[in-house]
Amino acid sequence: MSNISGSSSCSTNVRERGRIVGVPKRCWCGETIVAKTSKSDHNPNRRYLRCVYAAGNKLMNDNHVFKWVDDALLDEVETMKEFISETMKEKKMQMELQMELEKKMVMEVEKEIFERIEDVKDEFKSRMNRMIIVLVFGCMIMIGLVKLI
Ligand SMILES: [Zn+2]
Q: What residues does the GRF-type domain cover (predicted)?
C-alpha cells in the first residue's frame, strides 16, 4: 500500500516539475521522447511519454520529461480549443473593425454628398439672386424706355 501511494506521489512530483503543455517533442536534456506503457499497479497499461535517456537508465524521481499520453492529448485539445476561440475572437474583432470602417466611410460619403448638395444649393441661390437682379434691372429699363416713348 505504501509502495503504491509512494510511486503515485513520485510520478505526480515529476509531472509537476517537468510540466510541459501539450505533447512534448524533446526533453530539456536534448534526448527525444519515447511512448511507453505503465506497468505500475496504480496506472496499469496507461501510456506515457518519457525522456529516452531517463527511460533507458530507468531513472526514478528525476526531472526528465514524464507525461501521461491522455494528459498530453487533453492538453493538446485544450490548446486547440483556446487557439480556435482566440482565432474566432480575432475574426470577430476584425469583422467589427471592418464594419466600423465601413460605417465611417458611409458616414463620410454621406457628409460629402450633403456638403455638395449644400454647395449646389448655395450656387443655385446666388445664381437665382443674380438672375432676379438682372430681371428687375431689365424690367426697370423696359419701364423707363416705355415711359420715354
Ligand atoms: Zn531527459
A: 27-72
What amino acid is encoded at 142 in this protein?
M
In a domain, 133, yes or no: no
Confidence of residue 13 (pLDDT cuts 50, 70, 90): very low
Tell me, yes or no, whether 132 lies in a domain. no
CB atoms within 10 A of CB 66: 25
Residue 2 placed within a domain: yes
Confidence of residue 11 (pLDDT cuts 50, 70, 90): very low
pLDDT exceeds 70 at position 14? no
56 sits in which H/E element? helix 52-56
- The domain in which residue 20 lies consists of 1-117
For residue range 80-120, list pLDDT tens digits in order.
999 999 999 999 999 999 999 999 999 999 999 999 999 99
Task: Count up the domains in the chain and report the number.
Answer: 1
CA angle 57, 65, 35 (to 5 degrees): 75
Distance 65 CA to ligand 1 centre (A): 6
Does residue 136 lie in a domain region?
no
Which helix (DSSP H) or strand (DSSP E) does residue 112 occupy?
A: helix 69-148
